[in-house]
Design a protein that fits this description.
Blueprint lengths: L5 E6 L10 E4 L4 H12 L4 E4 L15 H16 L3 E10 L10 H4 L6 H14 L9 E11 L5 E12 L15 E3 L11 H5 L10 H13 L4
Parallel strand pairs: 2-3, 2-4
Antiparallel strand pairs: 1-6, 4-5, 5-6, 6-7
Length: 225
Amino acid sequence: MSAQPSATRTTDPQAHRPISGRLVIATHNPGKLVEMRELLALYGVAATSAGELDLPEPEETGTSFRANARIKAEAAAQGSGQPSFADDSGLAVDALGGEPGIHSARWAGPTKDFAGAMARIDALLRERGASAPAQRKAHFVSALCVAWPDGHVEEFEAKVDGTLVWPPRGTKGFGYDPMFLPDGFAQTFGEMTSDAKHGLPPKGQGLSHRARAFLKLAEACLERR
């Protein structure tokens, strides 16, 4: 089985603020929206998305996952007048100096061609002679931010380590999931069920980067129903 979650949490120097009622999920990504709604539903929090509210997508000018999550959450909070929840996540490949990192979505282009993006990563690794599993280490990172219209924010970050396989395996999940094999497991994220990938106890182990960050958020700001 995998090791204990590697996660860090940073917040404003204020007391944690509880989350209740309705949240705006600051995403236009249907895959992320599904995962976030499933996580929040366990705590009785209903959610609508920035896409459903026709909120514009802000320019992600940050230089870290945490900064970009905050940009999105704060833009949605100001645009909707409601507490807003954003995730910024991506794949960091050790042999590529951490790329694509915060540019993970951009590598897929405007058509969200993640099959092409995965092929590009594999080609770059092979150019570097990275064919053995030990040379293909990577990790998924997720930064979560909840922002309120009054300026209060709560921020959390976590990661999950793994190895990149080729060819990709599985059709579940989204993005780079089919090529990511988490440490200690025999299935890629693309082969795992929703509960196995990001289900919280008792259904799952909170395995994914997003689930691990969410568990930290829940510990600080949510009460399970």
